[in-house]
User: Fold this.
Amino acid sequence: MRFEAMILSITRSYIVAFAIITPLTMIFLASVRLGALSMLPNLLPIVITVAVMGIFDFPLDGFTVLIGSIALGLAVDDTIHFMHGFNRYYAISGDSAEAVRSSLATSGQAMLVTTLVLCSGFMVFTTGYLSNLFNFGLLTATSLALTFVGDVLLAPALMVLATRSRKSIPAVD
Assistant:
């Protein structure tokens, strides 16, 4: 029964985190479409992390249940910075490739530093003796690192595809 309760808990926490963060992102970006697309670079790393947990038999415990919702909450920050910059530069230039370059040039370094700081903070847990804390730190840091990769590779590609048929995206200031 304990395992079923954890599965229910992990599912509930991921759904609640997604249900809260997605509409807020849509409001901030002033676009339902872009808000929904912006969640892909944040959800894919969590799905990969859960798959890694299954493949390598990481135990599902009170700490690993928290990884997805914590990682989603932290990772969305970088995505919002990129998307906000993209919206601003796309409204100015009308060129999605230029908007991606400008956005990564201005917010990319901050995204990298933020990710390195967060990953380092969670990796501190890997120095402890408790295996559940070790797993929590390692898997959360991995999920955040994968999210950064998604934010610099997948998010720009999605924005270029999303703006192919559009003349401009309203600027968000």
Observations:
- Residues 131-163 form the longest helix (33 residues).
- DSSP finds five helices and no strands in the chain.
